[in-house]
Amino acid sequence: MLHSSHFFIVFFFFFFFFNNLIPQHTSSPLPLPLPLSRHRPEPKHFPVGVDLVNTTCELCKNASASFNYKFCVSSLQRLPISHAANFQGLAIVAMELAVENASNTVLKIANMMNSGTFDHHDMSCLEDCMETYSHSVASLLNAVGAFMARQYGVANTWLLQVTKGIRRCEQGFSRGRKEISPLKKQNYNILQLSDIALCIIQFLEPPQPPRSS
């Protein structure tokens, strides 16, 4: 976990001032997104200007069939910083929102575990998800640090670790029984926010040369 005071300041800033800014899905549970396509589009130039959010979300939608364009736009446009940020800045915004989302989910899981309304199976799943989300906060902060240092491959690795853990949290509730996760909305949100950052990294990270046989 990062010990830099900068990232703890960032963490608390987003936790207290941007609470509840993540779009809430109140309809029937939505399917979890799949990993972004390995296809790496090559735009002639990175998005800039007043239409930065829409253009970035459009590029990511074209890169992956599972990418949620509406979620991307509504999430990033809720923050004033998005309108002044550059292409790289939007990835940081997405990761900071993911930190806020993961932190709120830790509190939500704690309240669920103290409610006394879950059976042994679900309590075991909640314990696993609590550990996953706690680690995810640290991993996301590490991803932000790596990204700001332009270590895009390292940031990508941290983000993939987060998405892997969140999917494992989601699948735990249905293992052995047909049950919808009570954290489906939270899992979906953090996966989509991570996908925004992962998508931008695909544009920024130079493609690796093929290995010689």
What does this structure look like?
By secondary structure, this protein is mostly helical. The chain is built from 8 helices and no strands. The longest helix is centred in the middle third of the chain and has 29 residues. The N and C termini lie far apart (38 Å). The N terminus is likely disordered.
Q: Helical percent range?
A: 55-70%
Instruction: Spell the H/E element sequence.
Output: HHHHHHHH
The radius of gyration computed from the alpha-carbon positions, rounded to a whole number of angstroms, is: 17 Å
Strand runs, count: 0
What percentage of amino acids are in beta strands?
A: under 5%
Mean pLDDT: 79
The poorly predicted ranges are 1-41
- Main beta-sheet annotation: none
Distance between the termini: 38 Å
Q: What is the general shape?
A: elongated
- Count, helices: 8
Structural class, from secondary structure content? mainly alpha
Keywords for this entry:
213 residues, mainly alpha, 64% helix, disordered N terminus
Quick description:
By secondary structure, the protein is mostly helical. The protein is 64% helix and 0% strand. α1 (5-17) crosses α5 (87-113) and α2 (52-63) runs antiparallel to α3 (69-77).
Strands, helices and their partners?
Blueprint: H1 5-17, H2 52-63, H3 69-77, H4 81-84, H5 87-113, H6 120-148, H7 152-172, H8 184-204
Helix pairs in contact: 1-5, 2-3, 5-6, 5-8, 6-7, 7-8
